[in-house]
């Protein structure tokens, strides 16, 4: 639930509007971002602008985006920045939706302006868009222009290097146009320094890096205890399977690990989340069935990808290491919530070489690999690291993350 701001007689309460179109119900990382922002900015009253299907599980929203808002925004982008054929097709589609106009629709702009006016936001207040994309950037620029001297500070955090637009030509034209629309009311952020450097080099966008928000595992000063079988080395692969997260490689990595074990290697168990169809005869994890038995040196334990927060945290705390065979074509720039959770939980990390977030992976807590055989060797090697060395390395990474939160980039810009 939304918390009341902590204030004193000398402090003036500011308003914070958190804009999250994908916030619908209690799953994913979207709701954890709300609580993280509340902890980060405790002297702000918190209000939510959510997606069309938001079920009020965090309390009533000040507004909701229409069901067609995202589709209309993408059509508007094509009408503005697409090829001649894309422009004609976009205007035709917009007209067929009953919105004929020579000017592309601005549903996100209208919803944002209405929410700002309803809350009575002013220049001392803050709008945060923690999962921003290209459409939200353009909407924010128009909102700042419309509200003029009454415009609040608007903070957009970009997570994906495609900015939510898969068409490279449209993305480039739109971002180049956005870079020319300077507004002192808008500040751009990213999680990783790699992403910030890319945006500056490619599009001339000035982006502040290190805008991390803890996900499922909170940053606490207490060293968590492993809750699983201490005689078995448990390797976690968390979240529903996705191609960009290397899910199709898991069978090859598990098989290579079985071949790389030695007589002195403790039992290794891979903890994998997915649905029943994922592990079924035609699922992405179908080849892992041979490792379902716990009789061998290497085994697989399957878990649902849909679990409540407490169950997920308990499962995460039960592992010794986290496996991230991610595609570096994406994750060399994009951050990972699982990395943040692993650092917060003081877990070892075995990841694709050349992943972003190098500052969290360079404390002796993480090990890079490329091929399935390299991943297997790193997994087997981590089983032999002494507990004292594990605690030293993971505590260093944790302390780095904690310092970053205490000196968060948003506090340097807005507070």
Walk me through the topology.
Elements lengths: L13 E7 L9 H11 L3 E7 L12 E2 L4 H13 L2 H13 L10 H13 L6 E7 L1 H14 L5 E6 L9 H13 L5 E5 L2 H11 L3 E2 L24 E5 L12 H11 L7 E6 L2 H4 L18 E6 L5 H9 L3 E4 L3 H4 L5 H8 L3 E5 L13 E4 L2 H11 L4 H20 L2 H6 L1
Parallel strand pairs: 1-2, 1-4, 2-3, 4-5, 5-6, 6-7, 8-9, 8-11, 9-10, 11-12, 12-13
Helix pairs in contact: 2-3, 2-6, 4-5, 5-6, 8-13
General description of the model:
By secondary structure, the protein is an alpha/beta fold. It is built from 15 helices and 13 strands. A seven-stranded parallel sheet has the order 3-2-1-4-5-6-7, sandwiched between helices. Strands 10-9-8-11-12-13 form a six-stranded parallel sheet, with helices on both faces. Helix 5 runs parallel beside helix 6. The chain is globular, with a radius of gyration of 23 Å. The two termini are 25 Å apart. The mean pLDDT is 89.
Cα gyration radius (Å)? 23 Å
How are helices and strands ordered from N to C? Answer: EHEEHHHEHEHEHEEHEHEHEHHEEHHH
How do the strands line up in the largest sheet? 3-2-1-4-5-6-7
**How can the largest sheet be summarized?**
7 strands, parallel
Number of strands: 13
> What's the pLDDT, averaged over the residues?
89
């Amino acid at each position: 639930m939304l918390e009341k701001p902590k204030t004193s007689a000398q402090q003036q309460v500011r308003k914070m509007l958190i804009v999250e179109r994908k916030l619908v119900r209690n799953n994913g990382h979207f709701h954890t971002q709300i609580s993280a922002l509340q902890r980060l900015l405790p002297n702000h009253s918190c209000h939510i602008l959510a997606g069309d299907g938001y079920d009020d599980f965090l309390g009533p929203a000040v507004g909701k985006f229409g069901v067609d808002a995202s589709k209309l925004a993408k059509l508007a982008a094509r009408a503005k920045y697409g090829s001649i054929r894309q422009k004609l097709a976009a205007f035709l589609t917009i007209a067929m939706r009953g919105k004929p106009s020579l000017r592309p629709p601005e549903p996100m702009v209208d919803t944002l302006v209405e929410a700002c006016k309803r809350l009575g936001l002013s220049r001392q207040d803050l709008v945060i868009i923690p999962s921003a994309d290209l459409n939200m950037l353009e909407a924010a620029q128009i909102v700042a222009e419309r509200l003029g001297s009454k415009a609040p500070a608007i903070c957009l955090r970009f997570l994906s290097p495609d900015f939510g637009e898969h068409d490279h030509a449209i993305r480039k034209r739109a971002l180049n146009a956005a870079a020319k629309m300077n507004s002192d009311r808008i500040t751009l952020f990213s999680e990783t320094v790699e992403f910030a450097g890319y945006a500056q080099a490619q599009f001339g966008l000035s982006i502040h890096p290190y805008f991390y928000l803890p996900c499922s595992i909170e940053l606490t000063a207490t060293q968590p205890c492993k809750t699983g079988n201490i005689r078995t080395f448990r390797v976690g692969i968390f979240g529903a399977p996705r191609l960009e997260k290397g899910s199709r490689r898991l069978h090859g990595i598990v098989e290579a690990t079985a071949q790389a074990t030695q007589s002195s290697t403790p039992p290794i168990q891979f903890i994998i989340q997915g649905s029943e169809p994922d592990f079924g005869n035609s699922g992405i994890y179908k080849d892992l069935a041979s490792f379902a038995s716990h009789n061998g040196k290497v085994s697989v334990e399957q878990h649902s990808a849909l679990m409540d927060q407490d169950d997920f945290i308990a499962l995460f705390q039960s592992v010794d290491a986290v496996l991230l065979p991610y595609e570096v074509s994406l994750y060399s720039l994009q951050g990972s919530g699982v990395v943040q959770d692993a650092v917060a939980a003081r877990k070892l990390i075995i990841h694709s070489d050349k992943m972003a977030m190098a500052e969290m992976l360079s404390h002796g807590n993480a090990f890079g690999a490329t091929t399935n055989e390299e991943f297997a060797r790193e997994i087997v090697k981590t089983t032999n690291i002494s507990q004292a060395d594990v605690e030293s390395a993971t505590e260093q990474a944790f302390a780095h993350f904690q310092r970053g939160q205490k000196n968060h980039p948003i506090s340097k810009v807005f507070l």
